[in-house]
Structures are given as structure tokens and as C-alpha cells.
Queue: 2 jobs
Job 1
Amino acid sequence: MKIAITCVKKDKDSMIDERFGRCNYFTIYDTESKSFEHVENKGVTSAQGAGIAAGQQLLDHGVEALITGHVGPNAMKILQSGNVSIYKCSGKNIKEEIDLLLDNKLENINNAVPPHSGMRNRHGRA
Amino acid sequence: MKIAVLSGKGGTGKTTISTNLAKAMGWNYVDCDVEEPNGFIFLNPKVIKTEQVSIPVPEIDPSKCIGCQKCVNICQFNALAWANKDVLLFDKLCHGCGACSLVCGYGAISEVDREIGHIDVGNDEQITCMRGTLNIGEPMAVPIIRDLKKMIGNEKTIIDCSPGSTCSVVAAIEGVDYAVLVTEPTAFGLHDLKIAIELVRTMNIPFGIIINRGSHEKDLIEEHCEKEKINIIGKVMFDKDVAVLYSKGKLLVEHEKYKELFLHIGKKVEGEIACSLL
């Protein structure tokens, strides 16, 4: 199974980025080969529909689980259509989050946050 | 002949200026501020016709789709996605450009109309009034503004724009003969006015400034205009009478002293347009 994590830096010790559509990088962990892959999020450079672009990218990579902070409505639609399970991060680093997920200790996200929540400096939202 | 009224900053009095100018000069009025069309409150025309505005969005026939994903890749707006062997459509993001149906080699995509708003046409005693209204939750205003502008024709028209310097404003002022920039004598007013000036200059539209809520003293807008050699074509004073009329939804030109002021501004604008054509 491939697990994607939204992160700030292109590094497996990176902090998690709580945004989905506008996070900088995805770290993709393959539970079979136990290997890490870092990919740049195409959503960041999208003028609109960042969550959709990001979601599409994960589906193209064959990701089945996602650990992040908040997912918007459009991203939720595409991820659910692609049968990706979404989990709420717990504020740890990538390695620890993966361990928590594999121990079934992360909470499922089923509800989307309002659109554009991840854009900084917007009405004080995260 | 078309005059656009814009401002940069919101709440400076575009609708006040444009409705009163239209009434005083006897020009038609078109409300292109489709997210908040308020001009009809003051002009109170009798609506005689309402037309729907829609944009073409793709409809995918799954029986013909072979899953080549060309439509998903061509879409610049992320309105299409490929998930679980199906094309997903996010219709609010679709700009109706039609690239997806062009690129589909299997005839799986047809275009269907999706309503995004409507246009009202109304009659005042002397002038024709039009307004576009964007449906709540719709992100794209430009298609309605384009439709509105197609309906204007060559008649003398005042175009009331939305605030800022957005796509909507650009669409509304494209091809006008003159721009009236409404501002207020505050630091915010000046800041946003500068952006609006840059916009009309870039688009080569002759323009002049109207100061709203002005005082008898020289203000920062006048100082800036003097320095930049920009024409101030009028000033509406900060006056309780204005507030009272406005709060009742009345036009200022119903008041004799304002009627004269707007007739004067109107003449000045017409003079400016004549000069710009020389």
C-alpha cells in the first residue's frame, strides 16, 4: 500500500503540512518496499482547483491512504472517488505518523473544510 | 458611446455617481457589478425582460469514453479529473472553453448549458436600465458581463463596474470611450485609486477622477492628481443631505443643488470625450 503525507520540505524528517491542496510536497511511503518518495505538489502552482490537481496527482501515483490536516470539498470528492482513505495527522513527524497509521491510531477524515481554507492570511484561518 | 465608472476601492460611491450621472445626462445605465447589482434600488426601473445567462459545461457519455484522459490533461482549470475509471466534473471550475470536447476523439463529450445568473432589462421614464445578477455561490462573473456588453449596442451608456481591478472590471471597461474613477479622500482611497489608474492607463482609456465625500480643503487625492497631471472632473461634498437621500434609496439629482452638480459633471465628461477623440 502507498501512503501519502502532506509535508513542508522534501525530506522524510520534514514537518507535516496541515494543508492538502496547497502543501509544498507529498512524501509517499510504500509499505511493501518500505521506501520513501518525495514529489512536488502540482496543486501549488494551480491558479484554481489546487485540491483537485493534488488529488489527481495522488491517484496517478496509486496512493491508497493520505495523512494530512484539512481537506477541502473538491479534494474530498476526488479522493473519495478514487477510494483513498484520509487520516487526520497528529502533529508528529512523518515517520511517527506512518507508525501511528499502521497501528490504526489515526482518526479518519470524512468531512471537508470550507474551500480555500489552506490559503494563508485569509481571515485568520489556518 | 460608453462611460465606465470604476473605483479600485469598494464603497467609494460608484453606484451613487453612475446612477445620478445616467439620470442627469439621460444616458442608459448598465450595472456590471454582477455580484452586488444595487443600481436598480435607486433608479427603480420597471423590469420588462429577464434573460438567463449560462455557460457550456461538458457532459460525459460513459458508454463512449475509452478513458484516454485527454480531456483531463487539456483542462487548464482543473475542472476535470480521472478517478476510479471515470471522468469527474467539477462544474463550478469550468470556464466553458470547450477544449475538452474538441480534444475528445470518441465523441464522448457534449456541451450542456449551466445557468450561472440572469440579466434584467428595465425602463425608467427616460432611460433603459440593465443589470446582471450572478447566482449565489457562482465564482465566475465575466460571462454575464460579456453578455451584458453585447446587449448595450451603440447607445449612450453608463457602465457601473465592480470594485477593484479584477477580471470583472477589465471585462466591463473593455472598449469604453471614457472611464470615471470614483475615489474618496483617504489613504485607502488613494492607494486603490493608484491601482485603478494603472489599469485604465494600461488599457489606454482616457479617464478623470470624481472625489466623493470631499471637503472644501485640499485633500490628498487632489495633491496626487496635481502631481500626476490627472484631471479631476468633479467633487461630491461630504454632506448630510447626501446621506439622507441615499439612506432612503433616492437619487441625489432629485435635489436641485445635486442636479446641477451632476449636469455639470456630465458636460465635463462629454467635453473630455470630445477632446480625447481629437
Job 2
Amino acid sequence: MEIDLTRGSIERVETDQRDTELYLGGLGTNAKILWDRVPPEVDPFSPDNLLIFSAGLLCGTPATGSTRTIVSTISPQTKLMAFSMMGGFFAPELKYAGYDKVILRGKSPDLVYLWIHNDKVEIRDASHLRGKGAVETEGLIKKELNQPKAQVASIGLAGENRVFFASIEQGRSSASRGGIGAVMGDKGVKAIAVRGTRDVHLARPAEFMGLCDEVLEYIKFRNENPIPGVMPILAGLGSPQEMAIHDEKWHTENFMWGNSRVRRKDFWTEEVANQWTETMDKARIRLLSCYNCPMTCGATISMPGHPTYMMKCFSKLTYTMAAFSDLDFGLRIAQRATEYGVDGFSTPQVMAFGLELYENGILTDDDMAGMPADNEERFFWLLDRIVRREGIGDILADGTYWAAQRIGRGADAYAHNNIKKHEQLPLKLSMLNPIYFLMYATGEKMNITQIEGQFPQAPFPKREQREEFVKDWIQVPDERFKQYFLDWELRGENSIPYYPTVEMCCDIVDWQERMHYIDDALGMCAGLSSFPLKPPYHIHNYPKFISAGAGIEMDEAKLSQAARRYRTLVRAINIRRGMRRKDDRPPKNHWKKRFPELEQKLLDAYYAFKGWNNDAIPTATTLRELNLDFVAEDFFKRGILTDDEDASSKAVLAEQQK
Amino acid sequence: MQKEKKKKIVRRIRINADKCNGCRACELICSAYHAVPRYSSNNPARSRIRVVRDPLADIFIPVYAGDYAVAECAGRDKYIIDGKEYDECAFCRVSCPSREEFKEPDSGLPLKCDMCEGEPEPLCVKWCLVGALVLEEREEAVEDTAVPEEMEELEIGLEALADRYGLGKIKDIVARMSKKD
């Protein structure tokens, strides 16, 4: 469904079956639409930018955990394609209303919300919702429509004020990364409410249900048999079960505090453990799931003096750690942040960055006029300023990269945790990990947790443990991955950074990335597929789900090729927007021990593996092989590729030699 | 004639609302099981079980459909239990004229839980991995008035139609349809 907000028109367009076969759905078809209709000159806040809400291909079917809404647009922060995802209940409801996607273009002159009720679609006035919290808005709209079962995706004040890291909140989830909430606010859309009571059909029902039964059985088995030898959050399924777990030793001692600066190795004492356990037990009312999923990754949280809200995985700790505070503070401020609708990774880091600049004299008392003395109060104060874009808040609302550019005076040295201008997980490690180097550098999802998974993060100390692990490792796309893992040692010749070898790293990263891209087209939660070790969904059963569910004949090779196709298309969109090899790099201080030569080799090999040239641009041959001839033509027309495909890599060499 | 007493396994679903995670898998699988052909489609709006959800008020109550009620009840009270406010309808298992629950969304005909007759356990129970729904079986001596299941469904449906259009009109239509044959 297409909605032109400038003209107030609503149009129903049939989903293109051929595109569905080529790009599957969700992220895949979103990328195709963005390529076709948003040329690189279009600014994120232009009426010509599109904001696409898409249900994944399997959403609304009985496939456990296929709940994800994939929201795609051009990010105000990175100026590249943003494709944030959210779980919850929105995508299935959209399918039950009869739609695969909602495509928003133009800009509404007044604040509006959309009401989609099966065939009936309305653009409604939202002026009375201006300034309301995202969760508050959801409640108000349901009441106003007298539709308690409607699903509402909404923005808070941050989105309305185009904060570059504003999120879209929905149910117990949010689409947070890339600032898509700012684009929604820029379009003058406060919320989308949807209610559907239509049937979603399956192509081959009996076969499909058989597959669902296998997945449910597997989930039960894994719940009863956690994987030995890995930390608790990796031992089971679901996105890290942060709401259920009390032991936060690993995160608090390994992740960085403040503006991603300080590791507190002895933080987790008995006293802290007791205090945090008590806080969590009092605050957590109930563990929650998304639609049709037994994994309970979220929770309702109620802090005294604050309204109840729903929390998902890691925002439990992000504010706490940025402020050097405790869990009580984290849960309190996360309530307000959820109402404002801001990204739980970027926001705490931006605030800590602001305070670090202040402590180092780059921001002055004039910049911070009125700031309280108390540490926790400062965070609340900064959050309020940022979402209102008041004073220093207006600058910080652009995120650490752009704020540093505006502030000058050496502030950019403090924006040290970015990839492609986007705040990353607050992690700083010792020795370069070649697998993670590739994922950080070349990933386009702006979040490492959305690329990793499948392959263990570290070798197991003993050969017997490794042999035990590979025994029932049915998820590997090829037996050779077992050997990579079996031979991987903690020390010696077969250890990091030179083992896994460059070639193995390419292979491993490609597998991990491929699974995530498949999930994002199918609308499957990574927590049951690409993120955990040994998940119920994998490359061997996915083609069967697609064949039996959507009636598209599929096998492993065809599915891998489709994922490669739209993964390349995402890169092509970004290449057309100016991204190149120079942008493919992790934060400078992510690892203390770096290996520049190895890193160049890794990139060279990975680009070749992917069919990209030395400047990270997909070659014409690759593009044609993937039925992306139209991209090749566009690249030639723009001079991004020339007939001599080496030309651009020569340009890079010349640049490097300068 | 004296009706014969017969031993019969009576099945019911015990609800443990404290364990409900609000995922609504029960609604989905119920609607899929009852689709014709079986599993060909799903649509929670057709489900014979539903989860009354209000997450922020911590209200999560799975309810499965009971008998059809011709008239809406006069009650509609509000209850406060453990500080949470419930509408009386939240606990009620009937489909009635005043609400859309347990009715086919397009025909408005009432739906009733049949415990997925023929399956070892109702599928909502099977799909509820968090244990909020548990099957209970006990042997009971019951009067043998059993009507075949599909006849019972037909009867409920007809009753609802008669309620809406009047029995006379239904009879007329049935008569006309019989003539066509």
C-alpha cells in the first residue's frame, strides 16, 4: 500500500510476484524499491525519501518467531540505507489486514496518524498527540478508535523533532537503529495503527505444519539442553535473555562504561549482584514474547514513580553503564527514553560523549547552562534537552559524529566509537579478531549483533569439547565449517589472528551474514535463527518453509543466491550514495593490537569473495550474474564503474600512495 | 425413556494466567486447525481461544470459547483483582450479541472450542510451550445425549441465525433450498 502524505492519497498496488521471487520480501523487496525510487541525490529529510514498513515473507504464517517488521529508508545519520527491524505484533497484523508493505512518501503538512483496518485506510489528524510519548500515543489511539486489538507503531518527541537516533516503538519492541523515527517525524506521521481480520494462506499446508512441528520440538529440546561451554546468553535460543538473567558479570566487566572508555574488571561484587537482583526482581512484572513465539525475551518493567513499560534485551544496561550508575537508574531512565522514542545504543553514548566533552573543557558552562550537579540528574537533563533539541541538546541530537563536526575544537577525537558515522556497541578489546574485523568493517546493518551468530565467538579450549560440539551441528551449510572449528585453538599456530585463515574468515563471515539477510527478508527473529548457536531455523529447512509457505520453489542454492542478490543491492544503494572501501572499517580503537597488513588482506580477499572490486564496488560481472544488470548500467552511467573494471581500484591505489 | 448413564472422558483446559507470555500462538494454531482445508490458512480473528491482553496493566487471560448466548448479559461489571481492573467480559467464554469474540468475522456465526477432536491434545495446549494452557482429563458419568460434533456445530450456527433473522425466515430459506435440489 502506497500513501502519499503530501497529497493525502492512498493507493493499493499489487505485490510484484517476480520481485518476490528474486528478492523474497521484507528487506529484499524494500531494497529494490529504494534502489528504483530513491536516487542518491535525495536527502533523508526530502519528501522524495521513502519510509517503508514491510512484513517479512513468512509473517502471519504459523512459522514460530516470524514476527519482524523491516523498516527501511535513508538514514539521516549515515546518509546510507537504514534497515532497522522490530519484533512485536505489527507485521502479522499488517498481513492479516491484507498488506505486505506500507510505503510512505511525501510529507504531511500537519501531524497525522494512519489507521489501517482491513480495506479501510484513513489518514487521521494527530495534532492532539503532538509531544505525547510513544507508549502513551499507542494507548490513546487504541482508545480513540475503540480498537484494543489494534497494533500501533509510533514515535515520541524525539522522532517529531527529528533527532538523528530517534526510534519507532511498537508493543514490546522498537526499530531503533539509523534514525528511522526521525524520518517518520519528518514526514509528519505520529503513528500507524493497524487491525486485520483476514486469512493468511499457505501454499502447501500439511507440509508447512510438519516443518513448524519440527521447529517447536527443536526449541523444546534446546531449552532442556543448553549448549555446554559457552556463556549463558549464548547457550540457549531467543535474543539474549537479558530480562530473565540476573548475572550481569560478563556484560558489566567486558563492555565499556561511560563514553565507551572504561572497562571495570572487578565491578561485579557480591554486593552489586545482590542489589541488582533485588532491583530486577522488584521491577520485572512478567516476561513477554512477540507474536507466536515462546522465547520471552522482553518484560514489563514497573519502577516506583514511573509508568509501566516494556523492555527488550540490552537497554537494561546501556544507560546504567554510560552513567556509571546502577540498575535502578537504568530502568528508570529507560522508561523515559522509551516514551521519547530513542535508540538504546546511541542515546546513552551521545549523552556520555557530551559530558566527556564538558569534563575536558571542549563544552563549557555556557553550553551546559542549567545542568544539574548530580550525575544521574545530568543524564535525565541531557535526555530532555536532546529530544526537544534545546540548547546543547540540539547539537547532540545529531549523534556523536555530526555533533563533533558542529562543535569543532577537537571534539571529533571523542566521537571514537563509530562505524559509518553510527555509534556502535561499547566494546574495546585487546587482540584483533579477523572474523569480527570483517563483520564490523563490511556490515551495513550498523549493528554487529545483527550480523554475528552461528559460528562460536571463540575456540573451545579442548579438542574433545570441540568434537562434542560439532557432533550435532546440523546447521552448517557445508561440512568444512566443522573442520574450521575443530582445528581452532586458543594458542599456537591455529589461533587468532592468523587462524581461521583469511579464506576461512571470508567463508565464515559470509555464512553468518547470509543467515541474517535471509531472516530479514522472511521476517524471522534472529533469536531463533541467525544469532544463536545451533538454532531451529537454518539453511537446510528454510527453503522448505518458503516452498511450502509461499509456493515459491526454493532450494539452498537459490535461497543463497537471492540473499546474495539483495545483500549486493543494499551495498549498491550505499555505493551510489558515495560509500567506498575507506568507509569499511571498525572504530579506530576497537582493538588495541591491530594487524594492518592482515586487515588489508582480509578486505581484499573478502571483496573478491563477494565479487566486489578492490574499492568495495560490486563488479559488472557480479551484478549481471545476480540479475542486477540495471545496477551495472547505472554504475556505468555514473562513472562508478568503467569498462575497465580495474580503473576504480587503480584510483584507490593512487589514493593510498599519496 | 430413561437416558443411559455412560462413562466419558471429560477434557478441559486449565488456564494458568500467571504463565501466559501473551504471544497468542494459541489463537493462531486454533484458527489454522479449523481452517478448511485444515491448516490452509490462519486468522486469529477466527480463533476459538483468545488472549485478553493489556500488557501495561499486566492483564493476560487466555479464554476458550464456550456455549453461545442468545442475549447479552445484564452484568458488565468491573472487577479489581490484585490491583488490576478487569471487565467482566474478559473472563466470559460465550459469544453473545454484544461483542465480536468467538464469532466468524465474516458471517458472525458463533464458534465453540471442540478440544481439537481427534488430536491427542488441543493444539493450543501443544503450542503453548510456556505452560499457560494445560489439558486436564477426568472420567465422568454423563448422560448419553451426545450429538455428533458436526451436528452440534450446525445446531449452534442455526440457532444463531434464527436468533438474528427469526426462525420463520430460516425455515423459508431451507424450504427454498430444498426445492432447488
